[in-house]
Amino acid sequence: MASNQVRTRPIGKSGIQASVVGLGTWAIGGWMWGGTDERQSIAAIQASIDEGISLIDTAPAYGMGLSETIVGRAIKGRRDKVVLATKCGLVWHTTNGNYFFEQDGKPVHRYLGADSIAYELEQSLRRLGTDHIDHYITHWQDATTPIAESMEALIRLKEQGKIRSIGASNVSPGDLKAYVESGAIDAIQEEYSMVARDIEGTLLPVAMENDVSVLSYSSLALGLLSGKVGPERVFAEDDQRHGNPRFSQDNRRKVAQLANAVLPLAEAHKVSMAQLVIAWTVLQPGITFSLCGARDPAQARENAAAARLTLSDEEVAHIGEAVARNLVDLDR
Ligand SMILES: NC(=O)c1ccc[n+]([C@@H]2O[C@H](COP(=O)([O-])OP(=O)(O)OC[C@H]3O[C@@H](n4cnc5c(N)ncnc54)[C@H](OP(=O)(O)O)[C@@H]3O)[C@@H](O)[C@H]2O)c1
């Protein structure tokens, strides 16, 4: 493992620098992840910060405020070390917009109306115990509100100093173009990993052309690519991985073959499979940041260290070939 500093990159044109590896806190909200342990979660967040990770991503929808509340507790006294990202647009205070899913018996709608965004931001600031968000993201797109209208509201919040940069998530190429036209879009946040590469041919070229940063989410494919999901691992029924074809025995075998293929490289760098996967991810053209979830300090430290790992072009190509050979015809 190279002992140099955690690498940072700018978020779009905002002038904000953030660590190339970000801590994702979806699982810390518990919902869809079989519950959460607050003590371990706080320790994971603080371990990430201690390891030099500045980028922390959360959302109101992760446990209906629970993830944000836990992040707020964890960063108390460390706010200046954190580039804090949270989201808006999945709401349960109104039934405007389109119904999306139910959480804790409450209907959650996709809604990005201007008043709702302003309301949501205040709720997030309170839960996170801060007076500003460094990167504020529309979580899922709302077909009932024009992007230009949501963008106007976001730009107003930026002018007020309540948010410092603007992102959008789960966008189509058309949405991205509309965000670019409305000005001030700094980044998009999209699923991307060795097993989910659809955006390479769709969103990434548009993002690169327009200087829009890309935060990859589920970079470890919900943990499948951590190298630690053996054939015996059983997921709880309220964990989204339970019965998920992505975690089929066949897929686990293919990932194990990939791990074997890259083992000599991992050993040469004294790193784990997860660290190689994360380092490979942030070196893909168009990918700026890699968000990785962590439920405890050990996972947090392991993932954070990948932000210090540098790979040569040959090594990236070697990993890419191993991916192309082993991760074929995956169950999805
Ligand atoms: N914008 C969006 O719509 C959206 C959607 C999804 C995610 N995100 C963001 O992206 C972040 C990252 O994605 P993700 O959390 O979905 O998936 P991920 O990072 O691919 O996987 C996270 C899970 O993998 C396991 N894991 C992580 N590091 C590990 C390690 N070093 N060793 C062993 N296991 C490890 C942990 O679960 P176990 O310990 O339980 O196995 C962890 O909760 C999220 O937390 C969230 O902030 C955004």
Q: Could you give a short description of this structure?
A:
The protein is an alpha/beta fold.
Provide an overview of this structure.
By secondary structure, the protein is an alpha/beta fold. It has a single domain, classed as TIM Barrel, CATH 3.20.20.100. 37% of the residues lie in helices and 17% in strands. The chain has 10 helices and 13 strands. It has an 8-stranded parallel β-barrel with strand order 3-4-5-9-10-11-12-13, surrounded by 5 helices. Strands 6-8-7 form a 3-stranded antiparallel β-sheet, with no helix packed on it. Helix 5 links the parallel strand 10 (166-169) and strand 11. Helix 1 packs across helix 2 and helix 3 (114-128) crosses helix 4. The radius of gyration is 19 Å and the shape is globular. The mean pLDDT is 97. The protein binds NADP nicotinamide-adenine-dinucleotide phosphate. NADP nicotinamide-adenine-dinucleotide phosphate (NAP) is lined by residues 24-27, 57, 139, 169-170, 189, 217-223, 226, 228, 274, 291-295, 299, 302-303.
Q: What are its keywords?
A:
TIM Barrel, three-stranded antiparallel β-sheet, alpha/beta, 332 residues, eight-stranded parallel barrel, binds NADP nicotinamide-adenine-dinucleotide phosphate, globular
Largest sheet: 8 strands, parallel, barrel
Q: Bound compounds, please?
A: NADP nicotinamide-adenine-dinucleotide phosphate
Low-confidence region ranges: none
* H/E series: EEEHEHEEEEHEHEHEHEHHEHH
Task: Give the N-to-C terminal Cα separation.
Answer: 33 Å
Question: In angstroms, what is the radius of gyration?
Answer: 19 Å
User: How many β strands by DSSP?
Assistant: 13
- Gross morphology: globular
CATH architecture: Alpha-Beta Barrel
Number of domains: 1
